[in-house]
Write a structure and sequence with these properties.
The complex is a heterodimer.
Chain A (H helix, E strand, L loop, with lengths): L2 H16 L1 H20 L16 H13 L4 E8 L7 H13 L20 E6 L2 E6 L8 H13 L15 E7 L7 H15 L4 E7 H10 L1 H23 L2 H24 L9 H27 L5 H29 L6 H29 L15 H16 L2 H19 L20 H12 L4 E9 L8 H15 L4 E5 L1 H12 L13 H12 L17 E8 L4 H17 L5 E7 H36 L2 H25 L8 H7 L4 H17 L3 H10 L1 H16 L8 H32 L2 H4 L16
Antiparallel strand pairs in A: 1-4, 1-5, 2-3, 6-8, 6-9, 7-8
Helix pairs in contact in A: 1-11, 2-9, 2-12, 3-20, 6-7, 8-9, 8-25, 9-10, 9-12, 10-11, 10-12, 10-22, 10-25, 11-12, 11-20, 11-23, 13-24, 13-26, 14-21, 14-26, 17-18, 19-20, 20-21, 21-26, 23-24, 23-26, 24-26, 25-26
Chain B lengths: L1 H5 L3 H28 L20 E5 L6 E5 L3 E5 L7 E3 L7 E6 L5 E5 L4 E4 L7 E2 L11 E7 L2 E6 L3 E5 L7 E2 L8 E7 L2 E6 L4 E4 L7 E2 L8 E6 L5 E5 L4 E4 L7 E2 L8 E6 L4 E5 L3 E5 L6 E5 L8 E7 L2 E6 L3 E4 L2 E4 L6
Antiparallel strand pairs in B: 1-2, 2-3, 3-4, 5-6, 6-7, 7-8, 9-10, 10-11, 11-12, 13-14, 14-15, 15-16, 17-18, 18-19, 19-20, 21-22, 22-23, 23-24, 25-26, 26-27, 27-28
The chains are: A alpha+beta, B mainly beta.
């Protein structure tokens, strides 16, 4: 920094400190106002926020979800331990559950489907002709004969036997769908769980899965999440207190984090955003930044007082002045990186990005201004508040860093860093987009939700659905034998994928009706030979049922229909393969009169999300790095600087991505915010060290001594921040939500590698390569500091 | 390190300067390019469709010897096993029609029939199947079964279709005139033949199929399958659990009291007992006299419909809503590893 700018910054801080009471009052006032706003913020999950904007799949989903079932499907399985489900007690439970479900908040009452609903029918031939009747509606079967008749009807109906009754007859399924509206999912979840509890018993086990249930569980753990959050903050306080041994060292970083959080949440509320419970970890991530900045300022303040700067105000001014450049650079660069996330066209990510950017920028006030101003109140003669002194330990570590940099070990460190970088860089390509394991990655594999999901997927064709719309060009297109047989072949083609448990469409129903018409002879289980014959079969099926009952398969004028595919899991690879296969089939087997449209249902929507993330991941990472490079280049007026600071960032990211690939943590809508926000995390450590080196070179030309001094000064701040944050992040590991535990580890990893590179690798790099922007050159020597007037 | 390089003089220094000053530009440009233009390519796993798919329904099965088994089904599917049903290979056929029946002379020669009058024959174990022409007709032409009797192959189907081929399936002639009744099955022992069909119809031939005479039957329930263990003793099965027994070469038939309301689709004599299979996994069996019938299931818990049962050696092969092998009472469904 030029001496003149230096002077301006110094004057500003002198001014701020002179009117410190006013500054603090102003900040307090704003914090109070923002705090009131922040207290109003809603913590909830809005499903529509998860859907990418303008994606063709999402548009298909939104257009057809009312008829073909959207992404908020919930499956409830009733399983008996003894015998089979054809038992009056079990069927009574199915019936009661089916009726009671209508009262659940936000449920789409037209989409409650079970053995006891009106929608599950059989087509049978009788003396009056062919009729289609509900299997078990409105009344339960009576007596042994009734049960046997029901059993026979179920076995005869492939639309029921398999999809709604398991092949071993021990389990039956109830599926429901929720509307997307602005509703209270917590209430719906509680009502559902109450019904599940009521239904269970008498030898019947009840299991439940579906996105609304999953997010219900997440909300269920919200209290725990907050407890862990505050426990982590408490751990931070204790650790800061232990390490710094001063009141200001303990309280001020916390104050910085708190003020930032309040401002950011208040601003979020003003922008009309809500808070997703899953992104609470993100809050911790940014708070870590605020604390890091504050700790650096305090460490510098302590150094200044120790070196005899007279008066707390002067010491505070000196520390603010000297750290202004690296702090500001860290804030701006990080805010830029966070803002890049907004390019991903998923509302949830955009909201997180905007909140995050504001949050990071507030650090400029909460740490950069507030911390020095507050420090000026603390006496320059500090008394330690407890006798435990771990300073020697810190000094030993920093001594080790210096020893490595100044001896030949530096080459070993650099060599190893290079090898690790290349290896992790290659391994990071194994990172998967989408979920990497069956079950939900949000919860632990042995959570009751994931065990329920596994059981249901074992008994049935799959609880996750995707519908592919068969859009006819003319009304009646779905009666054409060519279109229908194309659908049959399409289903067969898709079912070759092992993860696709089954599929259902109009082309499955008509052969059944045809068979019934032919005395039940399976040799006639085939589509009609002409559009007229198919129209007749459709009429037979619909006759006697409510209008709309056919909607799940085709609309009233037989123009648009759906093929619903059932998936046993929704791993990224499963979905990608399925989507690619749909495309392959459509390309190789075009059919006159109809188009296949991708894709609705949960799997369809996830396919859209994954495609957006896959397409955007390179963009997001590259642009975030670009922001970093540009910020550094401008600040140090050197292109080399930009490249230089990319090194720790790249290293921490390749290692973190490798860890994700190794642990099977996929890049999905829940992990992406942390990953994207983490790109710039911890690069400030290197800023402080490098700036420390430069600052020392202002005083003398000895590079080696400058590096050692920088390690002992800002290096200590880096070490304190990293140690406290990493330790408190470990608490996330005890979360009932696997996602938060995983993200906690990721953050810890980022911080550790950033700190390690800042302390071991970067000083060695400076020593070996002597980049001009740090050590100067003959043409551009480092400007020697003029004594700054103090007072 | 740079200092060491400087020893090598101005040239080296120039190169180093050029590299260090251009590298950042290259990197920034690369990032910009990657951010705006590079899109990740999804890696997609290849899916090989198995020979037998979950959705496949099989209508006919033939086992010319203990190792060779052929089965045909919906969507023009033909599969063949050369290890007694342990593994299956799909045979390619460019026809989408449902195939209903198959018969084989040996492990090389076979003929299959199906919807829309489709008849295909092979003489090389199924490596190539050739379409055969059948006598033209304006009526629905669905063929249900094909049977082999000596050198002749007989195909039966809708609208009174009874076709005969004496050249291993290459050419076909119509034996009976068309009428509005479907023939469902045919059986021969020597020169005696029996033909069963809709509305309880049964006709008999005693001259190798040249002439046919209707037989008076006890009821009008459609008959689906017929089998004889010698020229005198035979069984016919049909819808609604119908079991008819004859011991006078098919001149008179006795109805066995119905054991079930489920349809029977196929009956065979397996050199020891009569076996009939049908809807929802039912299987009826009787001793040689066919007097005492017992109703059971193909296997405990199995509820699939079965349109044909064939035997080779100790194994039974079942076509139906799936393709299954019954070996010493244990049922194995082909293509279901998940079960």
């Amino acid at each position: 920094m030029k001496n003149s700018t230096f002077g301006k910054v110094d004057a500003t801080f002198a001014y701020l400190i002179r009117f410190r009471a006013l500054v603090v009052a102003a900040v307090a006032l704003v914090t109070l106002a923002m705090g009131w706003q922040a207290s109003q913020i809603e913590v909830k999950t809005v499903f529509s926020d998860l859907l990418p904007r303008n994606h063709p799949y999402v548009e298909v989903n939104q257009r057809f979800k009312q008829t073909f079932g959207g992404s908020n499907m919930v499956s409830i399985m009733l399983e008996v331990k003894q015998g089979d489900i054809f038992d009056p007690v079990v069927l009574g439970k199915v019936q009661k559950l089916t009726v009671d479900l209508q009262q659940v908040e936000g449920i789409d009452t037209y989409q409650i489907i079970s053995l006891a609903s009106k929608k599950i029918k059989e087509v049978r031939a009788s003396t009056e002709g062919v009729e289609s009747r509900p299997l078990m509606w409105p009344d339960l079967p009576e007596g042994e004969a009734g049960l046997a008749a029901l059993k026979a009807a179920v076995l005869n109906n492939p639309l029921v036997y398999g999809p709604y009754v398991s092949t071993d007859l021990k389990a039956t399924l109830v599926t429901i769908d929720f509307s997307d509206g602005n509703m209270d999912y917590t209430r719906a979840f509680n009502q559902l769980m109450k019904l599940v509890d009521e239904t269970a018993g008498d030898g019947v086990e009840v299991r439940i899965v579906g996105e609304p249930v999953l997010y219900g569980w997440v909300n269920h753990y919200l209290h725990e999440t907050l407890t862990i959050f505050f426990a982590a903050v408490a751990a931070l306080v204790v650790l800061l207190c232990l390490i710094t041994r001063t009141w200001h060292g303990t309280v001020l970083p916390l104050l910085a984090g708190l003020v930032s959080a309040i401002w950011a949440l208040g601003a979020a509320r003003l922008m009309g955003f809500h808070l997703d419970p899953l992104v609470v970890v993100v809050a911790f991530l940014i708070t870590a930044q605020a604390i890091s900045n504050s700790v650096q300022l305090i460490a510098r303040f302590d150094d200044e007082t120790r070196q005899g700067t007279p008066g707390a105000a002067a010491a505070a001014r000196a520390s603010a002045r000297n750290l202004f450049k690296p702090s500001m650079l860290a804030i701006v660069a990080d805010a830029g990186c966070v803002l890049v996330v907004a390019l991903t066209p998923i509302p949830l990510l955009q909201k997180i990005s905007f909140i995050g950017t504001v949050w990071v920028l507030t650090i400029a006030i909460s740490a950069l201004i507030l911390t020095p101003v507050m420090l000026s109140w603390f006496g320059s003669r500090q008394r330690f508040i407890h006798p435990v002194n771990i300073n020697p330990l810190l000094m030993r570590i920093l001594g080790l860093c210096s020893a490595i940099v100044t001896t030949r070990w530096r080459f070993a460190v650099l060599g190893m860093a290079g090898v690790v970088f290349v290896m992790s860089g290659l391994y990071a390509f194994n990172l998967k987009v989408g979920d990497a394991n069956p079950g939900s990655p949000i919860l632990w594999p042995d959570s009751s939700y994931n065990r329920d999901a596994a059981e249901i997927n074992r008994q049935f064709q799959g609880s996750d659905r995707m519908f592919v719309v068969v859009a006819g060009k003319e009304p009646g297109a779905l009666r054409e034998p060519e279109v229908l047989s194309s659908m049959t072949r399409f289903q067969k083609y898709m079912e070759a994928q092992p993860e696709v448990g089954g599929s259902v469409s109009l082309a499955d129903i008509l052969p059944q009706v045809n068979r019934v018409l032919r005395e039940g002879n399976p040799m006639y289980q085939e589509l009609g030979k002409s559009a007229e014959e198919n129209a007749e079969l459709m009429y037979m099926f619909v006759s006697g049922s409510d209008p709309g009952d056919m909607d799940r398969y085709a609309d009233a004028d037989a123009k648009n229909g759906a093929v619903t595919l059932f998936f046993r899991d929704h791993q990224g690879e499963t979905i990608r393969t399925a989507v690619a296969r749909v495309r392959d089939y459509v390309e190789q087997h075009p059919v006159k009169g109809a188009d296949y449209l991708l894709a609705g249902g949960l799997v369809g929507v996830l396919a859209a999300v994954n495609e957006v993330i896959l397409a955007g991941q390179i963009e997001a990472i590259a642009l975030a790095l670009l922001v970093l490079v540009v910020c550094c280049t401008v600040t140090y007026r050197s292109t080399v600087a930009g490249v230089f600071f990319m090194i720790p960032v790249l290293l921490s990211n390749t290692i973190t991505f490798s860890y994700m690939a190794w642990q099977g943590i996929g890049m999905n809508i829940n992990t992406l915010p942390v990953v994207a926000l983490g790109i710039g995390l911890g690069v400030d450590y290197t800023f402080y060290i490098v700036d420390g080196i430069r600052e020392n070179l202002h005083r003398s030309h000895n590079v080696e001594r400058a590096i050692v001094n920088a390690l002992m000064g800002p290096g200590k701040g880096v070490l304190i921040t990293a140690m406290t944050l990493i330790t408190s992040v470990v608490l996330w590991h005890f979360s009932s939500l696997r996602l938060q535990a995983d993200m906690g580890v990721l953050i810890a990893l980022w911080l550790f590698i950033s700190a390690f590179s800042a302390l071991f690798i970067m000083p060695a790099l400076v020593y070996v390569f002597r980049p001009e922007f740090i050590v100067g050159s003959k043409r551009h020597p480092i400007e020697q500091a003029e004594p700054v007037l103090v007072g | 390190m740079l200092r060491r390089l400087r020893k090598y003089g101005g040239g080296a220094r120039g190169v180093v300067t050029l590299m260090t000053s251009s590298a950042p530009l290259v990197i920034v440009g690369g990032l910009l390019y990657a951010g705006l233009f590079v899109k990740a390519e999804a890696v997609v796993q290849k899916v090989e469709p198995p020979a037998i798919e979950r959705r496949d329904a099989f209508y006919g099965v033939a086992a010319p010897d203990e190792r060779t088994v052929w089965a045909v089904g919906a969507g023009g599917k033909i599969v063949r096993s050369e290890d007694g049903g342990d593994s299956w290979v799909r045979q390619s056929l460019n026809i989408d029609a449902n195939l209903q029946g198959i018969a084989a002379w040996d492990d090389k020669t076979a003929v299959a029939v199906g919807n829309g009058g489709v008849v295909v024959a092979t003489s090389d174990g199924g490596a190539t199947w050739t379409r055969a022409e059948i006598p033209g007709s304006n009526n629905p032409n669905k063929l249900f079964r094909v049977r082999i009797a000596g050198d002749s192959a007989w195909a039966v189907g809708e609208f009174g279709a009874l076709l005969r081929s004496t050249d291993r399936g290459a050419t076909w002639t119509r034996v009976l005139p068309e009428e509005d009744r479907a023939w469902n099955d045919i059986a021969f022992v020597g020169d005696s033949g029996w033909l069963v069909g809709e509305f309880g119809a049964l006709t008999k031939s005693t001259d190798g199929g040249a002439t046919w005479n209707p037989v008076e039957m006890p009821n009008k329930v459609s008959l689906m399958s017929v089998a004889f263990r010698d020229a005198r003793n035979g069984v016919a099965v049909g819808l609604a659990g119908t079991l008819l027994v004859t011991s006078d070469g098919g001149d008179s038939w006795k109805q066995v009291p119905a054991l079930t309301r489920e349809h029977f689709y196929s009956v065979v004599w397996d050199e020891g007992r009569w076996l009939a299979v049908g809807d929802k996994g039912v299987m009826a069996s009787a001793d040689a006299a066919a007097a005492q019938w017992q109703l059971g299931r193909v296997a405990e818990g199995d509820v699939s419909w079965r349109t044909q049962i064939a035997r080779a050696g100790s194994r039974y092969f079942l076509a139906g809503s799936n393709l299954a092998v019954l070996d010493d009472g244990a049922l194995r469904v082909a293509g279901r590893s998940r079960m």
